Amino acid sequence: MLEIRGLNAGYGEVQVLWDVSLRVEKGEIVSLIGANGAGKTTTLRSVMGIVKPFRGEIVFNGRDITGLPTHRIVRMGLSLVPEGRHLFPKMTVMDNLRMGAYAVDGSKYRDLLERVFQIFPVLKERKDQLASTLSGGEQQMLAIARGLMSDPQVLMLDEPSLGLAPKIVKRVMKVVSEIREEGVTILLVEQNAKISLEISDRGYVLETGRVVLEGGSEELLRNEHVRRAYLGLM
Ligand code: ATP
User: Fold this and answer.
1) Fewer CB under 10 Å: which end of the chain, C or N?
2) Measuring from atom 25 of ligand 1, which residue has the nearest CA?
3) CA of 209 to the centre of ligand 1 (A)
4) Does domain 1-77+153-234 have CATH number 3.40.50.300?
5) Model confidence over 176-195: pLDDT tens digits?
6) What are the domain boundaries of the chain?
7) Atom 19 (ligand 1): residue with closest C-alpha?
8) Which one, of 140, 149, 86, lies nearest residue 116 by Cα?
9) What pTM, to 2 d.p., does this model score?
């Protein structure tokens, strides 16, 4: 469904990604794990057309989308939940959701809203509250819900566990699994390798801008390098 082939990208003169290749099949949850600064966010930004690649291709549903404008990529069915959420804090929950749906028409909007409120009942309860008044976990839920409001085929999540208590992280990961059950394919970027690999089918490990390991999630959880570098185990 989504394939990144030989992606080289960066900022100005600084190259961050070196020949990154990965693929996400329909219906999968795929993890991209790596430490701070490994290039995970840059990979997602390249897919969304926010960062223009130096070289390489990004193919979505058989179409080359490399370098297309972001709004077109969103309309084609890709959505990004950014690191740090980037909500509109002075707007209500409802208005934040509406912002996510800028590319969908009226009748579709109502269906999407209903689906999102089914997945996140707490957002329905809080629909008239300002986003800034929500707890950290609720804000992350709202960021994911807003990402779903563009009706994506592939939802990409950038470190949804960041800054959340372990109990809340578990709840967020459960929701990510439920979203996959609903038919949305997921690319999950995480520093927290354990929780990410536990819910995914396959994973890639990114180190200083290069994919150094890939495989089934269970295999990666058993891998000695992953255990030592990312799980704090010997
Ligand atoms: P994090 O967990 O911190 O988000 P990451 O794996 O997502 O890490 P990136 O955010 O992609 O990593 O950053 C990769 C490298 O690119 C880092 O060295 C970072 O300093 C650099 N970088 C990121 N954004 C920019 C930018 N806008 N301009 C210049 N360099 C940048």
Assistant:
1) C
2) 11
3) 10
4) yes
5) 999 999 999 999 999 999 99
6) 1-77+153-234, 86-151
7) 37
8) 149
9) 0.93
